Amino acid sequence: MDYFIELVFSGLTRGSIYALIALGYTMVYGIIGLINFAHGEIYMIGAFTALIASTVLNILGLPLYAVLILTALAAAVWAAAYGYTVERLAYRPLRNAPRLSPLISAIGMSIFLQNYVMLAQTSDFQPFPALIPEFAFLEPFAAVVGSTDLTILAVSALLLLLLTLLIKYTRTGKAMRATAQDQKMALLLGVNVDRVISITFVVGSALAAVGGLLIASHIGQINFSIGFIAGIKAFTAAVLGGIGSIPGAVLGSFVLGLTEAFATGYVSSDYEDVFAFSLLVLILIFRPAGLLGKAAVEKV
Amino acid sequence: MLELRGIDVFYDKIQALHEVSLAIQPGEIVALIGANGAGKSTTLMAISGIAPPRRGEVLFEGQPITRLTPDAIVKLGICQVPEGRHIFPDLTVAENLDMGAFLRRDAKAIAADRDMLYELFPILAKRRNQPGGNLSGGEQQMLAISRALMARPRLLLLDEPSMGLAPLITRQIFAIIQKINQEQNTTIFLVEQNANLALQTADRGYVLENGRVVMQDRAATLLSNTAIQKAYLGI
Ligand SMILES: Nc1ncnc2c1ncn2[C@@H]1O[C@H](COP(=O)(O)OP(=O)(O)O)[C@@H](O)[C@H]1O
Ligand SMILES: [Mg+2]
After folding, report:
1. CATH architecture observed for domain A2-136+145-286
2. For residues A142-148, average pLDDT
């Protein structure tokens, strides 16, 4: 039973990291219909920013909690700046181009950012400090859930809550939903659509960066290529849930995370990806628009 | 209040408007009639800054607005209800109205305007928490007009408000349009294929053919013009 619960926690932890990344894919797709292939690299840049920021902050001798919070802020802000810039340079000029052009531009951005970080940081794996404190009260349960798992879950839950409040209740959130549903009408009501799109990239990038920090601290090492596989997994989760749908991205992420955890736990970690992608194929056969996605006709 | 001076609008290489000129005085209802594809919607999109003219000028209260962005044009007091209504389907009725007031910051006055519109259209009040996509065509048209009024426009552009509506509903909508014009002193530029109804409602009218203004006159005069009757009124 303990083993089962351990796997559940492990699945939820994976799932919440996927969710933090998948939200960026799904929000950008929802608003401009683009699959932002460079999003995994934003996550990777978030992890590297966290590495640099935490190294500096640790040298300054700040307490662990302060280091964690400041590092998360630094990673979120820096990655958001990258996300904003990528949109401005690589996607906005192609807003009215044929659909394939921004997609190719996105792949180009992804390759560019990987190589840029590789040149700056080499291709070796670099050790990442454990930024998440060990909670004494969890010691009796150490067999089923660790401090890192719990922190990842709590931070993700908090961010999801904040995002939900933003989207549902703020003026900006309403403008984001309106723009996603009918861009021309949003323009006709005075929404600065370019700014709404920028905000979407900024929010998605910041979330991914926090995900990057959490998982890097959990695994303990990073290099320039970690964004690739994490990006593909999170994208899979977004498609699984119904790309364009925010609740869908979260649900898809947890379904994917749990599937992988159980596949690894009961079968073998070699088959983790096989199970993950078989699940994707199965769900798309029976629900082509994903778990919570709308019938494909809507997005033109 | 609004003046178009010889505007040419292109979609890529296709020219949709040829030297269109027209003028609207404060407080008027002006109708723009013409067959499908004549360029009526394009004219409104040119005014709203969505399809900017390649040549010519758009003036609002004497100032050129030809190169302004759509949000700057809304800010000046021009709001459009486009053809097909374009209700945000997954926003509630209340949220759709909020979007109309997107550029306003006076929360109290916004709430008062919303209440006023709920009084004018009780069905919207009843359905305020339902998604806009669930409304019937007539209800959506009421919502679309209400949403535009939430912007407190001085010039309201209406693109085919009668499209797809039953005659009874259409008559209701047109009565409301006249009421808005008289009670709130909102200037209205009305695009219609239903020329009969449009000319009965308007003070003056323009006739558009293949992207060109071919006739302009008082609405009553156009209604009794035999060429117009034959081409647009089915008489
Ligand atoms: N987005 C567009 N792209 C290309 N051509 C367009 C577009 N919108 C309208 N047109 C063309 O411009 C002309 C005028 O269209 P429109 O202004 O919609 O006419 P109306 O509103 O009078 O029916 C038509 O020939 C139409 O095919
Ligand atoms: Mg039209």
Report:
1. Orthogonal Bundle (1.10)
2. 78
